[in-house]
Design brief:
This protein is α/β, with parallel strands linked by helices and 433 residues long. The protein is built from 13 helices and 15 strands. 37% of the residues lie in helices and 14% in strands. The structure holds pyridoxal-5'-phosphate. Pyridoxal-5'-phosphate binds next to helix 5 and helix 6.
Length: 433
């Protein structure tokens, strides 16, 4: 154990809690501020349970029940809640306006993009719609989705196809990245104009081989859209390195930010391939209704700002900045490792039960593993299993989408192996019924 970490652990244990950001309101009495300026977060081990237990204290999330549904909603830690509160109070006492532009910069730095490539949205679906309704497509063109879409990933494309008489087809997500690639290749036709794929599928949580898909799409001159709902805050994202032109995500799942926040990344070179469908303050390079010769919209902003407009909620964007600071302090490399460590632990524990009734659906291929695990029981319907889990004090997600019919478990940095053990014991009991 590094000396500075030992010193920190002693200090934090004495104080009873860990505070990554100074905050003034909630639980101030039992979460005092600690000076982290000399603490090296890169030396934290993924299995250092003492550290992760302290980190858990930063989340007001109740402890009577075990929350295993981060894939739907990421509970915020105190510093985020505090930042939202503070900003709202500030806005409403001073009457100040604006401030959300700061988030564009903060987000861009966090995911290795440029500020100009970030459009602020309210959720993932909004970003998907900007692309699905904005790309130039004509009657007869084909769009390829997957057989593991979320409604938010499917509807914008199905809607575009319905309005414009386009064809939608899908490829099957394989057990391995290679199988998925083979399935995708077999579905591409001369008419395929768009591939829309989740970075991490919402159903069984598999990470998709995006870099390989980017390469394939580029070679064949096909537009590739990535639904990154589960990427932000789960993976150490580097959007320039990932290479895709369009990536929509949110800050309210794995980043544990305020609900109703997200962003769309549009690579600078791809901007002009999209027609903006909704515009307003911030979308333009100039406009006039009264100046001669005619009322005119002079042009569109030369950045992804052209797709977001009007008044934003400054307090939730302050919360996003705080969430990024929180994760940045731990470092995304450590967060990603811990997230993968916990889900791998859960998967291995389920497999160790060697119960034929338990069917693990998530791929155990290391590069396809993220923070989500899905399974079903052969002896119990998945909806009944969800009810039993709820009654036993676990919050899990039943996945009915695309007839996958399973239970999804998402574990994040506030979860512990202890909680996972309790859940595995519960599954064992259910599998023996
Ligand atoms: C893969 C995927 N895409 C899109 C969405 C929709 O996200 P939002 O509700 O933020 O629009 C979700 C939500 O769970 C998702 O899992």
């Amino acid at each position: 154990m590094a000396t500075d970490r030992r010193k920190f652990l002693k200090q934090a244990t004495q104080l009873g809690a860990l505070s990554i950001l100074p905050f003034s309101g909630f639980a101030k009495n039992n979460t005092p501020e600690i000076d982290f300026s000399s603490f090296d977060f890169t030396k934290i081990n993924t299995d250092d349970e003492q550290f992760w237990k302290m980190l858990r204290l930063q989340f007001p999330l109740h402890t009577e029940k075990i929350y295993l549904n981060n894939g739907t909603m990421g509970p915020s830690p105190y510093p985020v809640i505090e930042a939202v509160n503070q900003k709202m109070l500030q806005v409403d006492t001073t009457g100040e306006y604006g401030g959300w532009e700061e988030s564009r910069k903060t987000i861009a730095k966090f995911v290795n993009a440029t500020e100009d490539e970030i459009c602020l949205t309210h959720n993932v679906t909004e970003g998907i719609n900007i692309i699905a309704q904005g790309l130039e497509l004509k009657k007869g063109d084909e769009i390829l989705l997957t057989n593991h879409e979320h409604v938010g990933g499917a509807l914008p494309w199905l809607h575009r196809a319905k309005v414009q008489d386009l064809k939608v087809d899908y490829f099957v997500i394989g057990k391995t990245a290679d199988q998925t690639m083979a399935n995708l290749k077999s579905k591409i036709t001369k008419k395929t104009k768009v591939i829309a794929v989740p970075h991490i599928v919402c159903t069984i949580g598999q990470i998709q081989p995006i870099k390989e898909i980017v390469e394939l799409a580029k070679k064949q001159n096909i537009e590739l859209f990535v639904d990154g709902a589960h990427g932000m805050g789960m993976l150490n994202l580097d959007l320039h390195d990932l290479g895709c032109d369009y990536y929509a995500t949110c800050c309210h799942k794995w980043l544990c930010g305020p609900k109703g926040t997200g962003f769309l990344y549009v690579k600078k070179e791809a901007l002009d391939k999209l027609q903006a469908r909704y515009v307003g303050a911030g979308s333009d390079t100039g406009w006039s209704v009264i100046e001669p010769p005619t009322p005119v919209l002079k042009g569109y902003a030369t950045t992804a700002h052209r797709f977001d407009y009007g008044t934003q909620n400054a307090s939730i964007w302050a919360g996003v900045n705080a969430a990024i600071k929180f994760f940045d302090t731990i470092t995304m490399a450590v967060v990603e490792e811990r997230v993968k460590y916990l889900s791998t632990y859960l998967q291995n524990e389920l497999l160790k039960l060697k119960n034929d009734n338990i069917e693990l659906l998530t791929s155990t291929e290391p590069k396809s593993r993220g923070g989500v695990t899905a399974f079903k029981l052969k002896n119990m319907d998945f909806t009944k299993l969800q009810t039993e889990a709820t009654n036993a004090g676990f919050r899990v997600r039943a996945v009915a989408e695309n007839n996958v019919n399973c239970i999804r478990i998402s574990t994040h940095i506030y979860n512990s192996p202890e909680e996972i053990n309790k859940f595995v014991k519960f599954v064992e009991e259910m599998a023996m019924k």
